[in-house]
């Protein structure tokens, strides 16, 4: 005789749980004797009500966890979507701010590569450069000039020059580029590096120019230059000129 593990009653036969390995009489097992017999080889996988409930509970728990994770993801997406308009407004504000800041620099140039020296006279340096590139400048044509704090090295802080108007500035830059290679020795200073005369770009546009140059190199573009503070790229001398005013315009360099 066998003993039912649930009611402790005596039984001649019963059902055996494949999980807890307990033997139950048919009254406690929740299955009829005929039903259990019909299981045949599947009797080895039969579960008692307690173990079956436990398995269902675990499955339900796992399903609930998945639902909870899905709800969190949906909440994150919904939150992000609500923030998109504010982010767009912020981007638009920053772009407008950069455009206004760049407009304020329309008459300005940045001269890099001039070695520092004691008691230097920036106006004399600018005048010397003008004479060398055959575009003489006088004091009345310049609003102001100063040494920038943004520097790639202690000995070559950029000189910022503000001309009386944009046309003087553009002609000065064009003359410097036509001269091709300008060095400190050309203006009476000691040094072997090069002097560069360019538009005075904002930090954001300087980064944009750097990205444009990198992409142009990767995609075999021959020309990258700045004219009137606008970045221009060109595949070759027969290709159309592409203006790079915003980050999204970089997609055109391909």
Tell me what you see in this structure.
The protein is 42% helix and 16% strand. The protein has a 4-stranded antiparallel β-sheet, covered by helices on one side. The chain has helices spanning 26-29, 33-38, 49-104, 122-132, 166-179, 203-218; strands spanning 2-3, 10-11, 15-16, 23-24, 108-112, 142-147, 159-163, 196-199, 223-227, 230-234, 242-244. With 254 residues, the protein is of the alpha+beta class. The chain folds into 4 domains: 2-47, 2-Layer Sandwich (Herpes Virus-1); 62-104; 106-199, Alpha-Beta Plaits; 203-252, no CATH class. The longest helix has 56 residues, at 49-104.
CATH topology of the largest domain: Alpha-Beta Plaits
User: What is the second-level CATH architecture of the largest domain?
Assistant: 2-Layer Sandwich
Tally of distinct domains: 4
Q: How many distinct beta strands?
A: 11
Helix and strand run: EEEEHHHEHEEHEHEEE
Enumerate how many helices there are, as a single number: 6
Mean pLDDT: 88
The largest pleated sheet is described as:
4 strands, antiparallel
Uncertain runs are none
| Secondary structure category | alpha+beta
Side by side, the strands of the main sheet go 6-7-5-8
According to CATH, the homologous superfamily of the largest domain is: L1 transposable element, RRM domain
Distance between the termini: 86 Å
Beta-sheet strand percentage? 15-25%
Helix content: 40-55%
Q: How big is the Rg? A: 40 Å
* CATH class value of the largest domain: Alpha Beta
């Amino acid at each position: 005789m066998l003993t039912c593990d649930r009611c402790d009653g005596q039984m001649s036969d019963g059902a055996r749980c494949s999980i807890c390995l307990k033997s139950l009489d048919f009254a406690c097992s929740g299955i009829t004797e005929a039903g259990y017999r019909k299981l045949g080889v599947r009797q080895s996988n039969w579960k008692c009500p307690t173990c079956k409930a436990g398995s269902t509970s675990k499955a339900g728990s796992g399903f609930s966890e998945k639902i909870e994770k899905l709800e969190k993801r949906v909440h994150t997406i919904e939150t992000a979507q609500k923030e998109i308009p504010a982010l767009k407004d912020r981007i638009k504000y920053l772009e407008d701010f950069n455009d206004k800041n760049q407009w304020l620099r329309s008459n300005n140039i940045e001269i890099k590569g001039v070695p520092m020296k004691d008691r230097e006279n920036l106006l004399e340096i600018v005048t010397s450069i003008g004479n060398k590139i055959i575009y003489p400048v006088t004091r009345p044509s310049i609003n102001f000039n100063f040494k920038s704090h943004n520097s790639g090295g202690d000995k070559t802080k950029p000189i910022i020059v503000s001309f009386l108007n944009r046309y003087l500035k553009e002609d000065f830059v064009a003359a410097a580029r036509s001269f091709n290679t300008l060095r400190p020795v050309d203006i009476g200073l000691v040094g072997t590096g090069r002097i560069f005369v360019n538009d005075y770009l904002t930090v954001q546009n300087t980064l944009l120019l750097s990205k444009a140059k990198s992409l142009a190199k990767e995609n075999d573009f021959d020309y990258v230059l700045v004219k009137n503070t606008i970045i221009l790229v060109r595949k070759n001398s027969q290709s159309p000129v592409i203006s790079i005013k915003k980050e999204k315009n970089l997609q055109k360099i391909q």
